[in-house]
Amino acid sequence: HVQLVESGGSSVHAGGSLRLSCAASESARSRRCWAWFRQTPGSQREGVAVIYTESGRTHYSDSVKGRFTISQDNVKTTAFLQMNNLKPEDTGMYYCAVAVGDEGSWCFSLAARPFGYWGQGTQVTVS
Questions:
Q1: pLDDT (average), residues 10-23
Q2: How far apart are CA 22 and CA 39, in angstroms?
Q3: Euclidean distance between the first and final Cα of the chain, in Å?
Q4: How far is it, in rounded angstroms, from Cα 5 to Cα 87?
Q5: Which of 64, 99, 103, 117 shows a CA-CA span of 20 to 30 A to 29?
Q6: Could you tell me which residues come within 8 angstroms of residue 71 by beta carbon, excluding any fewer than 6 positions away?
Q7: DSSP per-residue letters across the chain
Protein backbone atom coordinates (compact mmCIF):
# COMPACT_ATOMS: atom_id res chain seq x y z
CA HIS A 1 0.00 0.00 0.00
CA VAL A 2 1.38 3.38 -1.05
CA GLN A 3 0.43 6.68 0.53
CA LEU A 4 1.03 9.81 -1.53
CA VAL A 5 0.99 13.42 -0.38
CA GLU A 6 1.38 16.31 -2.82
CA SER A 7 2.56 19.78 -1.92
CA GLY A 8 3.86 22.94 -3.55
CA GLY A 9 0.80 24.16 -5.38
CA SER A 10 0.24 27.90 -5.38
CA SER A 11 -0.99 30.86 -7.37
CA VAL A 12 1.53 32.42 -9.75
CA HIS A 13 1.61 34.79 -12.69
CA ALA A 14 2.11 33.58 -16.22
CA GLY A 15 5.77 32.95 -16.91
CA GLY A 16 6.48 31.98 -13.33
CA SER A 17 7.66 28.68 -11.89
CA LEU A 18 6.53 26.18 -9.30
CA ARG A 19 7.95 22.96 -7.95
CA LEU A 20 5.50 20.31 -6.86
CA SER A 21 6.47 17.46 -4.55
CA CYS A 22 4.94 14.05 -4.06
CA ALA A 23 6.03 12.20 -0.93
CA ALA A 24 5.45 8.46 -0.93
CA SER A 25 5.74 5.71 1.63
CA GLU A 26 8.66 3.24 1.55
CA SER A 27 6.75 0.87 -0.69
CA ALA A 28 7.19 3.29 -3.59
CA ARG A 29 10.98 2.81 -3.86
CA SER A 30 11.31 0.31 -6.71
CA ARG A 31 9.48 -1.01 -9.77
CA ARG A 32 7.34 2.09 -9.74
CA CYS A 33 5.99 4.42 -12.33
CA TRP A 34 5.46 7.90 -10.96
CA ALA A 35 3.07 10.20 -12.75
CA TRP A 36 1.59 13.64 -12.54
CA PHE A 37 -1.92 14.29 -13.79
CA ARG A 38 -3.93 17.46 -13.81
CA GLN A 39 -7.61 18.26 -14.02
CA THR A 40 -9.62 21.44 -14.40
CA PRO A 41 -13.37 22.00 -14.04
CA GLY A 42 -15.05 21.13 -17.30
CA SER A 43 -11.98 19.32 -18.63
CA GLN A 44 -10.96 15.68 -18.61
CA ARG A 45 -7.99 14.49 -16.60
CA GLU A 46 -4.69 14.84 -18.45
CA GLY A 47 -1.48 12.96 -17.88
CA VAL A 48 1.39 15.44 -17.97
CA ALA A 49 4.56 13.60 -16.95
CA VAL A 50 5.83 10.17 -15.91
CA ILE A 51 9.10 8.71 -14.66
CA TYR A 52 10.16 5.12 -13.99
CA THR A 53 12.14 4.54 -10.79
CA GLU A 54 15.08 2.36 -11.86
CA SER A 55 15.78 3.75 -15.31
CA GLY A 56 14.80 7.36 -14.78
CA ARG A 57 13.12 7.34 -18.18
CA THR A 58 10.59 10.11 -18.55
CA HIS A 59 7.80 11.10 -20.86
CA TYR A 60 5.73 14.26 -21.16
CA SER A 61 2.56 15.40 -22.77
CA ASP A 62 3.03 17.66 -25.76
CA SER A 63 1.40 20.53 -23.89
CA VAL A 64 4.13 20.66 -21.22
CA LYS A 65 7.16 19.31 -23.08
CA GLY A 66 10.13 21.62 -22.73
CA ARG A 67 8.61 23.46 -19.79
CA PHE A 68 8.04 20.78 -17.14
CA THR A 69 10.55 18.34 -15.68
CA ILE A 70 9.69 15.29 -13.60
CA SER A 71 12.32 13.85 -11.28
CA GLN A 72 12.75 11.70 -8.20
CA ASP A 73 14.99 11.88 -5.15
CA ASN A 74 17.93 9.51 -4.60
CA VAL A 75 16.02 7.11 -2.37
CA LYS A 76 12.99 7.24 -4.66
CA THR A 77 10.50 8.21 -2.01
CA THR A 78 9.68 11.61 -3.46
CA ALA A 79 8.81 12.72 -6.95
CA PHE A 80 8.95 16.29 -8.17
CA LEU A 81 7.45 18.28 -10.97
CA GLN A 82 9.39 21.41 -11.85
CA MET A 83 7.11 23.68 -13.83
CA ASN A 84 8.67 26.60 -15.68
CA ASN A 85 7.21 29.24 -17.96
CA LEU A 86 3.76 28.54 -16.61
CA LYS A 87 0.75 29.42 -18.71
CA PRO A 88 -2.87 30.05 -17.68
CA GLU A 89 -3.73 26.79 -19.44
CA ASP A 90 -1.63 24.98 -16.82
CA THR A 91 -4.14 25.88 -14.12
CA GLY A 92 -5.70 22.90 -12.42
CA MET A 93 -5.58 20.39 -9.64
CA TYR A 94 -2.38 18.37 -9.90
CA TYR A 95 -2.39 14.78 -8.73
CA CYS A 96 0.51 12.46 -8.09
CA ALA A 97 0.01 8.80 -8.91
CA VAL A 98 2.03 5.60 -8.62
CA ALA A 99 1.76 2.26 -10.37
CA VAL A 100 3.72 -0.93 -9.67
CA GLY A 101 5.30 -3.07 -12.37
CA ASP A 102 8.25 -3.67 -14.68
CA GLU A 103 9.17 -0.87 -17.01
CA GLY A 104 7.09 -0.79 -20.15
CA SER A 105 5.01 1.30 -22.46
CA TRP A 106 2.14 1.16 -20.04
CA CYS A 107 4.02 3.60 -17.81
CA PHE A 108 4.79 6.11 -20.53
CA SER A 109 1.41 6.22 -22.21
CA LEU A 110 0.15 8.93 -19.83
CA ALA A 111 -3.02 6.91 -19.33
CA ALA A 112 -4.58 6.96 -15.88
CA ARG A 113 -5.89 3.41 -15.67
CA PRO A 114 -2.58 1.68 -14.70
CA PHE A 115 -2.26 3.82 -11.59
CA GLY A 116 -3.70 2.42 -8.41
CA TYR A 117 -2.39 4.94 -5.91
CA TRP A 118 -3.31 8.60 -5.94
CA GLY A 119 -2.64 11.64 -3.80
CA GLN A 120 -5.19 14.21 -2.71
CA GLY A 121 -4.01 16.82 -5.18
CA THR A 122 -2.49 20.28 -4.98
CA GLN A 123 -3.96 23.32 -6.67
CA VAL A 124 -1.99 25.28 -9.24
CA THR A 125 -3.40 28.58 -10.47
CA VAL A 126 -1.69 30.60 -13.18
CA SER A 127 -2.92 34.08 -13.99
A1: 98
A2: 17
A3: 37
A4: 24
A5: 64
A6: 51, 79, 80, 82
A7: ---EEEE---EE-TT--EEEEEEE-GGGSSSEEEEEEEE-TTS--EEEEEEETTT--EEE-TTTTTTEEEEE-TTSSEEEEEE-S--GGG-EEEEEEEEESSSSHHHHT--STT--EE---EEEEE-
